[in-house]
Specification:
By secondary structure, the chain is an alpha+beta fold. The chain is built from one helix and twelve strands, in the order αββββββββββββ. Strand 11 and strand 12 form a beta hairpin. The termini are far apart. Keywords: Signal.
Length: 135
């Protein structure tokens, strides 16, 4: 009986330790690619270990890529299995394009913006890659 209880406690500790390690590994840095030949500004709704946050504006030149950073300079992280939401729009003089949807609302500069889930994948560096395209 004592052996069974001890074995059960060891197995439980291994499961809990593995779950804690897995959740720590699920946080990934956010890398955004503007795959559009036009400049964009982006609002982001992301989820890290502290909860849901909106951040922005982020400005991207045509075909520019970057890690997203907090105002403090640290790279933003996203929990891998939770959707990453964004609102984006072109900023040049051409016909205005918007990327929006039925996701969480974000308020900036007196406006309300509806976000959309971004298609993401984990890239070769282990970051969450989000590509914004014009097509």
């Amino acid at each position: 009986m004592l052996r069974t209880t001890l074995a059960s406690l060891i197995a439980f500790a291994a499961i809990v330790g593995g779950a804690q390690q897995a959740s720590a590994q699920a946080r990934r840095q956010i890398f955004v690619q503007n795959a559009c030949p036009r400049p964009l500004r982006v609002l982001l709704d992301y989820t890290d270990h502290k909860g849901l946050h909106d951040q922005g504006w982020y400005y991207f030149n045509p075909r520019e890529s970057s890690y997203l950073r907090a105002p403090t300079g640290e790279k933003l992280t996203q929990i891998e299995d939770i959707p990453l939401y964004a609102y984006a729009e072109t900023t040049d003089a051409g016909r205005k394009l918007h990327w929006q949807g039925n996701g969480p609302e974000m308020k900036r500069d007196g406006g309300i913006y509806r976000s959309m889930p971004l298609t993401t994948r984990v890239d070769g560096d282990g970051d969450i890659l989000a590509r914004i395209t014009c097509d």
